[in-house]
Amino acid sequence: MSATFLSLQGVSKRFLGLLAVDEVSFDVAAGELLSVIGPNGAGKTTLFNLLTGQLSPSAGRVVFNGVDINGQPPQARARIGFGRTFQMSQTLTSLSVLENAMIGSFLHHRHISAAADHAYASLELVGLQHRANITAGELTLSERRRLEVARALALDPKVVLLDEVMAGLNQTEVQGMVDLVRTLNGGGLTFLVIEHNLKVVRQFSHRVVVLDRGAKLAEGSAEEVLANPAVIEAYIGKSKQ
Amino acid sequence: MPRIRTFRQELPPLALTAVLLAALVGLYSGDNFTLNILATTFLFAGLATAWNILGGFGGQFSLCHGVFFAEGAYLTANMVLGAGLSPWWSLAPAAGLAAATAVLISWPAFRLRGPFFAIATMTFSEVVLVLANYFESITGGPQGMRVPFRPGWQNMIFTGRIAYAWLMLGFLLLALIVSLVLLRSRLGYYLQAVRDNEAAAEASGIDVLRTKLMAFAISAAVTGVGGSLFVMYVRIVDPPTLLTLSDVGVRFALIALIGGVGTGYGPLFGALLVVPLEAWLRAELGAYAPGSNLVVLGAVLVLAALFFKRGLVGAFQSLPLPARWTGRLART
Known about the structure:
heterodimer, A: alpha/beta, Rossmann fold, 4-stranded antiparallel β-sheet, 9 helices, B: mainly alpha, two-stranded antiparallel ribbon, 16 helices, 2 strands, about 70% helix, about 0% strand
């Protein structure tokens, strides 16, 4: 029997008095496109940080391909196949756009020219190849988000975690990003996506996990979850009757 | 398509730099005063270039590079005076000792970030200054150590000042080659990624501590070699000469900052401005009003801090020149 691709088992994270993530469990299958939604402060980003090792859980386990990876730091998780973007974009502002992507591609390509070629290919995926030689600090916000996706893709990851990459993008750009994620997912790449744009969530998710105040509120297809009264209540409050 | 500079592309400007600096030595070959200034300039240019590997590319503001400098100097003096060996044999051990020290202090120091790292390294430098005064058997204590004047190639002591200018030019070129090879390597990119954003670096599979540590060791090794050459050049050293922060540790950083921190050639430009200016002011003004040379130098540094925030190289880049020209000096 093959182990579950990625599995969260009763994962909690406590910051002093605040329980940011409260015993969350769910599995992610290889090749899946899973969205994590929830109101502001629900613990979505904290959950991502627990998955990629920026934070370590107070309780519970993160299991990847049958291996407990709780103790592994972020750089080790990048090596075993985790790629991610950050909610607040973390561009390497003094490097060029191409060099930013190269920072990712160096993981599997030691030589400069091989890393540059591979990085350029990931810039082409996100449509930033025409900006390759400018300094990344000069990019617009939406370009920075796309650059982060390119850097994550340059790692040749097995699973990509996108933390609100659509935020601040215009409609055309959002559609471009949706198409990109769908294409890559079609090629077998697993995605975990934090997204506030529910139209997007409906459009591409195989499955949706809803978090509210740290705990898992619901899990299922986008249609099921978004019709769930508890989810609607968490998002827009109780209706007066 | 991708346009990334490799070390091979750095070779023509590096060769041009070597030729220009050599021409400068040739031009002043009869003038011992100027040759001394050139030798000191090249030495400090090399030391600032070494500092820039960690401080500039890696953004880790070390103020303990004086320790590595002193280690090189004391190791060489001891090998020459104690064991009667040729100083040439001491260069590799000096590099090794400095690198090992850097690795040792990395473990506590890199737990600290930004200014706290700078303060920790500064403290380390001050502690070593006290220890250097105390352990007379190794350092000669406050009296210092004196290397006797026995000219000869194998003794690295020369009657003509021009030989020292060539020696220091050789050291500068070594430092530039190490720095540029690193800048155009994976480690160089990783260092810059760590400087720009540690979280993004980690998420890209970079071991941040290991990256800083390797840069620190390489930077320290080159600095140690500089210390070895320095002791053979001045032939008398005491703890304040080697470890006073304002004259050594901070000076490396200052030269790099004035020239353009984090750029390949910035530290060289900084040294070309600061070292001769200091020497000239000391000669011209020091005699009339002692200390006035420092006032003028201080004013120059303040002006540089105000108007050349990105150093001389940064100021040059912002001139309205064709990118083809300014690009030569740029990091990318």
